Amino acid sequence: MAERVVLAYSGGLDTSVGIGWLKDATGKDVVALAIDVGQGGEDMDAIRQRALDCGAVESVVVDAKEEYANDYLVPAIKANALYQKRYPLVSALSRPLIAKHLVATARELGADTVAHGCTGKGNDQVRFEAAVAALAPELSSVAPVRDFALTRDKAIVYAQEHNLPIEQSKKSPYSIDQNVWGRAVETGFLEDPWNAPIEDLYTYSKDPATPREATEVTITFTEGVPTAIDGTPVTPLQAVQLLNTLAGDQGIGRIDIVEDRLVGIKSREVYESPAGLTLITAHEELENLTVERDVARYKRGVEAEWANLVYDGLWFSGLKRSLDAFIDETQRYVSGDVRLTLHAGTPTVTGRRSGQSLYDFDLATYDTGDTFDQSLAKGFIELWSLPSKISARRDAAQ
């Protein structure tokens, strides 16, 4: 049997042409692997058949939506994961999942190489190859666009010459990546960071400026995992899908950011993640109610490092695993309900409750009968400020 390479296949021009291009460049048979992470669009059966029509010796399709939600989105929610405090890792979270299935398919079918359609300028090449290296160091990784100079104009000519079943419609002015967690849009006129986004960019969210009635929603969490919406039990995937609709209809989840890429350049990106921003907003507020102060303060630094690691393609690193263990421990008591008003592009928390709440009304109230002993405060302040007082005396003596 000829040597094989497993290609992460999207069904688009570059990866479709990449099948034959890889065969020509490496002499290896190509297995196409398409992963359904809720990106929508074409039917996966059509994508499977297209890969075969483009020359793949085998075409594998994996429905990984539940796995993606349970094993990748749930940890992101627990970590309140926002790269640069704003971006909910829409693309970065799907790459290690795809890499995991690339490795599994390569091992199952006896391939010695995996491939992807990334350029040499973006983050995803690093995410795919770093994940493969961590999971299967014996495998090689190749990228036709990057390694074999498969430019778009060459791809179009190749598709025409070989009569590949790829529609050569007018090229979209944008580069788009999407999955159930959100949508990423770049290039075109967006490459000038002064240009404002236009409404045509968005599909996951409606215009937040359009007048409409607000939506109220209550999200239930169990140990940090969303388990019910308005009292109806849901899986994590169902929670994301439902909130994409509810929050998206209110224009929630739009992000316009100049982002620091791993490869050292800045890139202007526009994202949509209605469910992502809504769930993180609700989860953070429930943590405010149930997580003790010092743990919460420390966790904020861990969250930033977790987001950096995932963005940088190190999902399967030792540090990431260690941070996961800490984050999971912090979620022991993060159970309860958060009520939000979704309106005009903003998810606003209006209520929170939990059987594990650390909020003590008798201590917090300013009414008569509170149990907080204010007489203790004076001595506490004396001791708390003592180092500052001593150093101030020294400074004054200089």
What does this structure look like?
This protein has 14 helices and 14 strands. With 398 residues, it is of the alpha/beta class. The chain folds into 3 domains: 4-171, Rossmann fold, CATH 3.40.50; 176-291 and 333-353, Alpha-Beta Complex (Argininosuccinate synthetase, chain A, domain 2), CATH 3.90.1260.10; 369-397, no CATH class. The strands form 3 sheets. A 5-stranded parallel beta sheet has the order 3-2-1-4-5, with helices on both faces. The mean pLDDT is 95. GO terms for molecular function: argininosuccinate synthase activity; ATP binding. It holds the Pfam family Arginosuc_syn_C.
Q: Based on helices, strands and strand pairing, what is the structural class? A: alpha/beta
CATH architecture label name of the largest domain: 3-Layer(aba) Sandwich
Assign the CATH topology of the largest domain. Answer: Rossmann fold
Strand content: 15-25%
Major sheet details: 5 strands, parallel
Q: SSE order, as H and E?
A: EHEHEHHEHEHHEEEEEHEEHHHEEHHH
Give the class-level CATH name of the largest domain: Alpha Beta
Quantity of strands, as a count:
14
Produce the secondary structure layout:
Blueprint: E1 4-8, H1 13-26, E2 29-36, H2 44-53, E3 58-63, H3 65-78, H4 94-109, E4 113-115, H5 124-135, E5 140-142, H6 144-147, H7 152-161, E6 175-179, E7 182-186, E8 215-222, E9 225-229, E10 232-233, H8 236-248, E11 254-260, E12 266-272, H9 274-290, H10 293-311, H11 318-330, E13 336-343, E14 346-353, H12 361-364, H13 375-384, H14 386-397
Parallel strand pairs: 1-2, 1-4, 2-3, 4-5
Antiparallel strand pairs: 6-7, 7-12, 8-9, 8-13, 9-10, 11-12, 13-14
Helix pairs in contact: 1-7, 4-5, 8-9, 10-11
GO biological process, one term: L-arginine biosynthetic process
Binding site for L-citrulline: 87, 123, 127, 175, 259, 271
GO molecular function: argininosuccinate synthase activity; ATP binding
